[in-house]
Amino acid sequence: MDRGHAAGAVAPAATTSAPPRRRRWRRAVRRLVLLVPLATLMALAGPAQMAQAHAFLAGSNPSDGQVLDAAPRELRLQFSESVVLSATQIDIVDSDGRHYTAGDLTVVTAGDGADTEEPVEIVGTLPALDTGAYRVSWETLSSDDLHRTSGVLVFGIGQTVTAGGLVEPSPRPFEAGLRWLIFLGLSGALGGALAARLLAAVRAPFAGSVQTGRDVRRATLVSLGGAGAALVVSVALLADQLTAVAGSADLLRGSYGVRWSLRETGLLLLVVAAAARLTGRVPTGRRWLLATGAALALVGDALLGHAGAGATTNLTRVLASAAHLGAAATWAGALVVLAVLLVPHSRPGSAGGRRARTVLRLFGPPAAACVAVMVVTGVFLASEVVGSVDAALFTLYGRTLLLKLALAGVAGVLALVNTRRLHRSRPRRTPRATVAAEALAAVGVLALAAVLTSAQPAMEPELVRSTVAAPDSHVDGVVADLQETVAIQPNVPGANVLLVDVLQTRRPAPARVGSVEIVLTPAGGRPQTLVAEPLVDDQWTVHADLAAPGRLTVQVIVHRAGLEDTSAAYTWVVGGAPNLTRAAVVSTDPIGPGLRIAALVLAIALLVTRLVVPIGTGVGGSRSMRIRGRSGRHDAGAPDVVDVGAAPAEGTGGRERVGTR
């Protein structure tokens, strides 16, 4: 008996044109493959809104390294995102080792303070402090993603001090481990489903179809177990995070609870979809369950992470983060499942070896699509988690990201090696070692991703040169028939004088200016309303206490008898802020805009490639791949390929259409 008969290969199919149903399927696949990069391009071209969950200290009063003439009455810590007040701890130590406590801690926001994700300011009263140096150690919890963050600052009263500088909190190994398990579970759920579908496509053409049937069931069990494990571990992670939060029930009733429930619902649907595949019931409904569950789980995880931060949801970043995780999980999970199930049985010259090569070839197109999505979305997402070249080179977060990129590059090189070996005109053996190495690299990429989601993004002011404009000497504008000019002197934190000129441009003036109100609103702070006093020549003045340097909104409200009040808001920059950015080693210039442009260029290149290059051989391709067999000889060195165009019901022994999710 020749090798072709021993392998149980099927007879060659007719070379007639594909039936209309199959042609419609292929056209739909081509459109989908073109639509994915187009949608990615549109998303990346949308507006970008800076937001970093995992709050860091954006400023303080007293500031780090500041020397005061008199003891401050309160301490103000300004955070880039909202924090949980009950999880905030502040410890003040003087040069003699005596500890002081900041009392009556309150959260100050620009909004109403109810479940907001806006930048906030923690304010606490200070006891009477003597002349000397003081070190402030603080720790808190970001309310966006429940990440712990901490830092130090040093100030002096009548004494020169050295600033505390950048303190990067390290991610907790236990938290990073739990996040890795969630990623592994999600990759098992999505990758196992894809692997089962690829394996089912080559059930009939090989004598080892019984073994293939077992492998399909095993891959489905991986999908079921992965989704279930991710569901359980995510509950354990939530419990670990809430140990530092008093009143956690209120937190879960807010937006965090909604986002967490979204991910849990998605994971639960993935469990149901995998269980439905095991029982073989309702194929169409199962596919909808799988697609809906994957979408909810991925979007929910994105909303719980760095992409979901901010007062308003940045849809572009959320979708990019969900696509990045989904592509990475599907690629890594399917690769590991196929390596474990196929490589041990892929001896040279055996039916198992030919089956392994066939399945791995079918895995090529969806794997390439996943890698393309990972690259484009990864570059885009990096634009708001790494602020500068120095931030990438000299922080734990930046170095971990670079290591992840290097490991992903190794996996990419291995993938190219495997592709070349699998597509030789007369392949002799399955690239077992390099496939296993690529699978290990994929698992390592997920581990580093878990560390990144547990760490603080490298966006601190010490690492990124500020782009805030220099303080203004005055601002002016026209409101109705009024010409207004606003000036603040000396424009530093502390006591200041506001001067407002209000000139009526109509002659004669319709009414006398009766009074002028000034509303001062610092970024992330509480509005302060002041009533100005008149001076000569249409000038008004008022004394104001400015708490900290930075942006300030000045609203001028003019009251005139018999006329409607006029109101205008002006943006002001309070000076006196020390330069927190440390001396550049390579560069502290912001790199976010450049990374966003690079992501956009990659997306355009991907779209052009899909338009110009044929879809190719494989899933939804324009060329059928067939195995010669029963009635003729099968060349052991010829490509072992199978037509995946037909779509009979699973378990019928016929060939099954392969699709990617």
Descriptive account of the structure:
There is one protein chain. The chain is an alpha+beta fold. The protein folds into three domains: 3-48 and 172-462 and 593-612, no CATH class; 57-157, Immunoglobulin-like, CATH 2.60.40.1220; 475-574, Immunoglobulin-like. It contains 13 helices and 18 strands. The strands form four sheets. A five-stranded mixed beta sheet has the order 2-9-8-4-5, with no helix packed on it. Strands 10-11-12-16-15 form a five-stranded antiparallel beta sheet, with no helix packed on it. Strands 1-3-7-6 form a four-stranded antiparallel beta sheet, with no helix packed on it.
Taking all Cα atoms into account, the compactness measure Rg is: 31 Å
Assembly level: single chain
Low-confidence stretches: 1-18, 45-52, 111-116, 616-661
Count of discrete domains? 3
Give the terminus-to-terminus CA distance: 40 Å
If helices are DSSP runs of H or I spanning 4 or more residues, what is the number of helices? 13
Shape: elongated
* Average pLDDT for all residues: 78
Q: What class would the helix/strand composition place it in?
A: alpha+beta
| Residue fraction in strands | 15-25%
Biggest β-sheet description: 5 strands, mixed
Strand arrangement in the largest pleated sheet:
2-9-8-4-5
Percent helix: 40-55%
Number of strands: 18
